[in-house]
């Protein structure tokens, strides 16, 4: 099966990234700015999203800044994100754009191993100490020790809520520190006629966030990563326990979990219809695009402790960045643009365009972060082990086709749990060697 | 008889010059070659790949797997049976509800009941719409904040589950699928009915036969060829069902169909040749109806 | 004699009542049928903010075509419509042309493999399309590399056109060959006696006779190819080359979806086939029925 180093080597490394982001490492900008030879030519860039959305506008702003700096034209196209991910292997084999926003972990490493992505180790080196050693390790493909993605941003998965809603309800989520507290919070929210724990899983991946955190809280990070890499069994009582806890949350969920996707969850929060929502913070850009007031109202706290042995020492914090296609027309240009994305100038352009992400580069002055971003860093800082999210921490032919439907089946009919877990394990066992 | 003899003469190869023979070869060769290269060859490749392990990228990585993918599907993948079940439900629904309804509608509209022209038009419209649009239209009806939820007084905070509610979503999907299928069947049948001798029907009415008797005794038997084709189309369409569900659920398997599984495994994020095996299973299921269809439409030629 | 007349009249009266009932019932059914479309149109005429502020069922404060203009501009619909045209027109013409070639040969010349050819083509039309998705992609890449231009077929209109042709030509062949069987053989005989070449026999004699089924098929296939959006997902890496039905996907999802805008987009994209259908209804219907009712 897939090599465990993938998971283990990354253990607690991104935590380092968080520290880097906090500004402990500095002075890397000198190296970054002395990139040697001049790269020319038009660069094609794929944006995952549609052209009118907030994220795409930020993408274009960064690309424009690059053009301004280098004189190289960037031709951006926006694509439906699901379609891009689903056809990724085909797109990369055909005539891909030179660079594109992408995600670290299995999705990058496996495709790099297959020769679809260009090595950007030189660019990572050029960015120098602005990238912490930990961030670099997080972006490194364990099978050859090279980087195939320029890490730019990351975000925590945590409990999101609206401060105003909680105030109206007379609740204080900051104080929830145990599982019982969480259930009480859900109970209280539900009593007021709101959704206690908002969840959508139509896309088949959204509920993986809840699974991940429950597994890490109950059984610890190591067990989680081992499970995803076949070293532990899905039939283990520990996994049953995870689902039992998920089952305990079902009464507080919206009744249409399998009807809505992540955007449906977001809308529940945006329109003040729910209490807590377990999600990655990236969606905050949409809040900001709606209005500053909505954005200021948004808050995040770590998922509470369940098992004292593990406390809140782990978190999913996916690393995003820019990758370069090997089959692009101008891979050199693509790599140069990717490097720009990771540099201070790139980040400045993104921030100026309203980006609410937190950056990996230590060149960015974190003191300028707004309150929400500082809270995100605090949430990340509370954890010492960092996962990438289930569909980046395990094989692509396992996450989507097997775990996704398994969680959906559980949400449909929790009583089938034993059967579901047996099947999940059987399907792992039947996977071909990589 | 005489015309057959004449045909022989017309067709005799003797009369063909070199040029003509070349033209004929091109006439047949070009389309056939295209058909083989872009249709049959890919199908054959898929069949072969279904016996391998591969991540779909480097040809050198292909490894022989024997029947492993099939074993995996039949014995280790519960979602396969769920998909099979949904395909069967689709088939049963189309066979016993949607198709008969389409036929009934055609029959009534053919009788030129009041308003038949406008009805006919209305039922045709969904037939010409893209599935991409049909998906959007029906989402407007069922999504949180949509029409049906609104009627029930639900906003997005307390929306009832429809697409994700496995007690009812099958019926909802069947309803939406029928929206198009019924019009299609009606269209086919109406054209057939135009050829039924009107006097037969009138005679039957004068004999005091009820509407149902007329339909059963006169219409159905005369429409036999159309009936067979409709049955086959219904079966094939049910097995090939895909677009609508893809538009609603994407490649997630909240309401799986064989075709969705093919797509999820064959083209999706975790590309594997299990997808090819799903495709072959689908093909095998389609072979029967395809042969039945061919036998019906080429009955005379096959003799 | 008279008694039959009485029975007849009585029967007719009863039938009239029944018919009214049936008509009302079908009318209700038809309303249910058309309602989702009417609802979509209604939604498209209202601004998003109205819905957000006052709910789906509120009395409209504003009704206008703003969403249509915005959708057209935002989606760059003109551009995507052109893409659709670039694919649809050549694909239909080529399909009809190739289909008529095969149909012509098998119905006018007796070769041993005539029937096998017909079977091959007709069966091809009924294959589950997913069976071929990925190999077609690989094939396109390989063929492209062979000619030193990867975009020869992949990410190119030509590639989409060719797959459409490969899939639809079976249906065209089938329909056209059954039609040609109804054309008297004498016409061919005289052509051959006049010493016409095979090509002239096809081009000057048969093709003009095929006008009705070609028109019918043309309408039908334009509609089918216009409506397809899957091939473009797999065979086009550049969004700007995809057809208008794919462009619609761009309006969906990612951002806080403006459903009213999406409704307008859907109506705009639906319009061409619906209009085509209303204008050329006869061809449309006969196209479908030619294929499936001719034995």
From TrEMBL, chain A:
Protein name in UniProt: Unannotated protein
GO cellular component: cell envelope
PROSITE patterns: TAT (PS51318)
InterPro entries cross-referenced by the UniProt entry: Bact_solute-bd_prot1, SBP, TAT_signal, TAT_signal_bac_arc
Family note: Belongs to the bacterial solute-binding protein 1 family.
Record-linked NCBIfam families: TAT_signal_seq
Main subcellular location of this protein, as a coarse class: other
Keyword set, alphabetical order: Signal, Transport
Compartment list: Cell envelope
Pfam families assigned: SBP_bac_1
Gene3D superfamilies named among the record's database cross-references: Periplasmic binding protein-like II
Keyword Signal: yes
From TrEMBL, chain B:
Entry's transmembrane regions: 21-54, 88-109, 121-142, 171-191, 275-294
One GO term describing the cellular component: plasma membrane
Domain ABC transmembrane type-1: 84-295
Gene Ontology biological process terms from the UniProt entry: transmembrane transport
Primary residence: membrane
Compartment(s): Cell membrane
Keywords linked to the UniProt accession: Cell membrane, Membrane, Transmembrane, Transmembrane helix, Transport
Identification of the protein by name: Unannotated protein
Source species of the chain: freshwater metagenome
TrEMBL record, chain C:
ABC transmembrane type-1 domain location: 97-280
Membrane topology summary: Multi-pass membrane protein
Cited CDD domains: TM_PBP2 (cd06261)
One Gene Ontology term from the biological process aspect of the record: transmembrane transport
UniProt cross-references to SUPFAM superfamilies, sorted A to Z: MetI-like
Pfam family, one: BPD_transp_1
Gene Ontology CC entries for this record: plasma membrane
TM region(s), chain numbering: 21-42, 85-106, 118-141, 153-176, 214-235, 255-280
Cited Gene3D superfamilies: MetI-like
Main location: membrane
Keyword ATP-binding: no
Subcellular locations according to the entry: Cell membrane
Keywords of this entry: Cell membrane, Membrane, Transmembrane, Transmembrane helix, Transport
Keyword ATP-binding assigned: no
InterPro entries listed in its UniProt record: MetI-like, MetI-like_sf
Name of this chain's protein: Unannotated protein
Native organism: freshwater metagenome
Taxonomic classification: unclassified sequences, metagenomes, ecological metagenomes
């Amino acid at each position: 099966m897939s090599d465990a180093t993938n998971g283990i080597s990354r253990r607690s490394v991104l935590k380092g990234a968080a520290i880097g982001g906090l500004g402990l490492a500095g002075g890397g900008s000198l190296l970054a700015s002395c990139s040697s030879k001049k790269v020319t030519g038009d660069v094609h860039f794929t944006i995952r999203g549609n052209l009118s959305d907030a994220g795409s506008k930020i993408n274009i702003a960064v690309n424009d800044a690059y053009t301004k700096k280098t004189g190289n034209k960037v031709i951006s196209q926006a694509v439906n994100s699901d379609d891009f991910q689903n056809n990724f292997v085909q797109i990369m084999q055909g005539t891909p754009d030179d660079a594109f926003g992408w995600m670290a972990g299995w999705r990058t490493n496996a495709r790099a191993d297959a020769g679809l992505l260009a090595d950007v180790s030189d660019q990572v080196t050029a960015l120098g100490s602005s990238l912490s050693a930990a961030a670099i390790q997080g972006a490194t493909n364990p099978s050859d020790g090279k980087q195939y993605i320029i890490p730019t941003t990351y975000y925590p998965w945590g409990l999101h809520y609206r401060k105003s809603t909680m105030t109206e309800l007379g609740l204080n989520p900051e104080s929830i520190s145990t599982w019982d507290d969480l259930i009480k919070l859900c109970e209280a929210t539900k009593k007021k006629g709101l959704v206690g724990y908002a969840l959508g899983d139509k896309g088949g991946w959204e509920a993986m966030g809840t699974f991940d955190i429950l597994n890490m809280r109950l059984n610890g990070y190591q067990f989680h990563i081992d499970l995803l890499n076949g070293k532990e069994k899905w039939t283990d009582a520990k996994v049953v326990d995870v689902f039992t806890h998920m089952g305990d949350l079902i009464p507080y969920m919206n009744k249409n979990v399998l009807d809505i996707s992540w955007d449906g969850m977001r809308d529940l929060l945006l329109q003040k219809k729910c209490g807590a929502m377990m999600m990655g913070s990236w969606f905050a850009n949409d809040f900001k695009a709606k209005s500053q007031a909505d954005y200021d109202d948004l808050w995040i706290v770590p998922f509470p402790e369940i098992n004292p042995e593990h406390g809140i020492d782990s978190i999913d914090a996916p690393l995003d960045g820019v990758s370069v296609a090997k089959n692009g027309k101008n891979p050199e240009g693509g790599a140069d643009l990717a490097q720009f994305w990771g540099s201070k100038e790139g980040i400045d352009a993104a921030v100026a365009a309203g980006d609410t992400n937190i950056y990996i580069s230590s060149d960015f002055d974190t003191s300028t972060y707004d309150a929400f971003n500082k809270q995100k860093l605090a949430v990340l800082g509370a954890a010492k082990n960092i996962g990438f999210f289930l569909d980046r921490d395990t094989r692509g032919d396992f996450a989507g086709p097997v775990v996704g439907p398994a969680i959906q089946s559980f949400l449909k009919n929790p009583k089938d749990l034993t059967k579901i877990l047996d099947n999940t394990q059987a399907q792992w066992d039947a996977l071909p060697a990589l | 008889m005489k015309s057959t003899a004449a045909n022989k003469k017309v067709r005799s190869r003797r009369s063909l010059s070199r040029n003509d023979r070349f033209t004929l070869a091109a006439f047949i060769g070009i389309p056939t070659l295209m058909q083989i290269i872009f249709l049959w060859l890919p199908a054959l490749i898929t069949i072969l790949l279904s016996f391998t392990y591969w991540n779909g990228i480097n040809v050198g990585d292909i490894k022989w797997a024997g029947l492993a993918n099939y074993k995996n599907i039949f014995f280790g993948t519960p979602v396969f049976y769920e998909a099979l079940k949904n395909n069967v439900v689709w088939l049963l629904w189309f066979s016993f509800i949607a198709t008969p309804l389409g036929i009934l509608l055609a029959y009534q509209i053919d009788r030129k009941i009041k308003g038949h022209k406008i009805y006919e038009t209305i039922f045709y419209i969904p037939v010409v719409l893209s599935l991409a649009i049909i998906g959007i239209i029906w989402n407007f009806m069922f999504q949180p904040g949509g029409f049906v939820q609104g009627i029930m007084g639900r906003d997005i905070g307390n929306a009832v589950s429809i697409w994700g509610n496995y007690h009812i979503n099958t019926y909802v999907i069947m309803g939406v699928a029928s929206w198009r299928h019924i019009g299609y069947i009606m269209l086919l049948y109406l054209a057939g009915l135009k050829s039924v001798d009107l006097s037969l029907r009138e005679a039957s009415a004068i004999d005091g036969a009820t509407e149902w008797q007329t339909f059963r005794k006169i219409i159905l038997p005369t429409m036999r060829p159309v009936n067979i084709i409709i049955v086959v189309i219904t079966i094939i369409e049910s097995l090939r069902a895909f677009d609508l569900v893809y538009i609603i659920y994407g490649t997630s398997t909240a309401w799986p169909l064989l075709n969705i599984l093919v797509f999820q495994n064959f083209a999706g994020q975790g590309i594997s040749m299990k997808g090819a095996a799903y495709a072959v299973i689908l093909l095998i299921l389609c072979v029967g109806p395809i042969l039945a269809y061919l036998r019906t439409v080429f009955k005379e030629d096959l003799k | 004699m008279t008694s039959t007349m009485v029975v007849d009249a009585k029967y007719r009266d009863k039938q009239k009542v029944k018919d009214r009932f049936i008509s009302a019932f079908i009318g209700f059914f038809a309303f249910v049928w058309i309602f989702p479309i009417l609802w979509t149109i209604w939604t498209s005429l209202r601004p998003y903010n109205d819905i957000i502020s006052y709910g789906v069922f509120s009395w409209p404060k504003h009704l206008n075509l703003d969403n249509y203009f915005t959708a057209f501009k935002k989606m760059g619909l003109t551009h995507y419509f052109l893409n659709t045209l670039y694919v649809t027109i050549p694909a239909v013409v080529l399909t009809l042309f190739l289909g008529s070639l095969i149909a012509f040969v098998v119905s006018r010349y007796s070769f041993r493999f005539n029937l096998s050819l017909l079977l091959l083509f007709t069966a091809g039309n009924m294959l589950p399309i997913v069976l071929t998705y990925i190999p077609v992609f690989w094939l396109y890449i390989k063929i492209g590399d062979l000619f030193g231009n990867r975009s020869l077929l992949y990410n190119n209109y030509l590639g989409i056109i060719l797959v459409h042709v490969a899939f639809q030509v079976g249906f065209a062949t089938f329909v056209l060959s059954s039609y040609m069987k109804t054309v008297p053989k004498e016409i061919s005989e005289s052509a051959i006696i006049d010493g016409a070449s095979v090509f002239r026999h096809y081009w000057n004699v048969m093709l003009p006779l095929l006008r009705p089924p070609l028109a019918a098929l043309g309408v039908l296939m334009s509609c089918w190819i216009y409506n397809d959006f899957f091939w473009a997902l797999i065979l086009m890496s550049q969004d700007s080359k995809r057809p208008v039905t794919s462009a619609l996907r761009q309006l969906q999802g990612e951002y806080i979806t403006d459903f009213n805008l999406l409704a307008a987009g859907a109506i705009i994209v639906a319009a061409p086939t619906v209009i085509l259908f209303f204008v050329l209804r006869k061809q449309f219907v006969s196209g479908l029925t030619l294929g499936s009712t001719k034995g």
